[in-house]
Write a structure and sequence with these properties.
SH3 type barrels; alpha+beta; 2 helices; 5-stranded antiparallel sheet
């Protein structure tokens, strides 16, 4: 085997090994993000802070009612536009949702 052939073999071996590591690294990051999104969605879905028919305020101004909670998305009814708003659960944490606290066992927002 001459020097050029050996050099090609070494480079293809290095690129092959590094290529495999790059693919594994990308796969791990993608899988991690997927697991994280699923966990965030499950936390909202299973959490007791918000229930279907709760009236909440998005960013303190937009009054909405939760009409459906799913594993990956939540559906809201927007009062001022009379439309539905669908938001992925992973994005709910950044929306600054507010809800009136119950007073004397009743929620004032109903």
């Amino acid at each position: 085997m001459d020097f050029d052939t050996q050099l090609e073999h070494v480079f293809s071996k290095i690129i092959g090994d590094l290529g495999w590591m790059v693919i594994v690294g990308i796969s791990v990051l993608t899988f991690k993000n997927t697991i994280q999104r699923i966990a965030e969605g499950m936390a909202f879905f299973l959490g007791g802070d918000y229930k279907v028919d709760d009236i909440v305020y998005i960013h303190g101004t937009k009054k909405v009612r939760i009409t459906r909670k799913g594993l990956t998305k939540t559906v809201f009814y927007v009062y001022d536009t009379k439309r539905k708003l669908i938001i992925k659960n992973e994005r709910l944490g950044s929306l600054m949702l507010e809800k009136n606290l119950p007073q004397n066992g009743h929620n004032e927002s109903h």
